[in-house]
Task: structure prediction
Amino acid sequence: MSQPTPKFALAFMIVAAGCLVAGVSMGIAMGIAHDFALAPVHAHLNLLGWASLALMGLTYRAWPELASNRLAASVQFALSAGSAMVFPVGIYIAISHGQPLPAILAAIVWFTGAVLFLGRLVALALADSRRHLPAAMAAAPRA
Ligand code: HEM
Result:
């Protein structure tokens, strides 16, 4: 039987695909209406929501050990997926109502999620090199 898909990878991919459907629907609506005022909302829904979250999901799929710390993975998912959905709304509010604060706050949350993602990848790389170090030292020719 095949391995089950890691839950975090699937969660990232589901939110990403939701953003893709919303972003592309918006693109079609903009094209039909010939009104491109909200193009930045569409672009960020697709690029933060679809592209970035899908890459994160595929990364969790490629390195399932990233989710071994469930708390860190849950927090990163909440920060990244939550802000990917809120940020485009913030851009809409900034464009339509001249109020940039929601977009600024969502951008900071997105940044925090990205830093946590980087931290988890670096921690995984360090743990991996520590695991392989004794074997590499044992295999090294002695002078
Ligand atoms: C059926 C699919 C899509 C349609 C119909 C569509 C439509 C549009 C339209 C009408 C614009 C505005 C063009 C203008 O300002 O002259 C636009 C801009 C843009 N789109 Fe899409 N789009 C689609 C999918 C995507 C996807 C999948 C991505 C990214 C992964 C994307 C990224 C962008 C970007 C970066 C811009 C430029 C935004 C800006 O100038 O502020 N689009 N799209």
User: Anything to note?
Assistant: The helical segments are 7-33, 39-62, 70-97, 101-139. The chain has four helices and no strands.
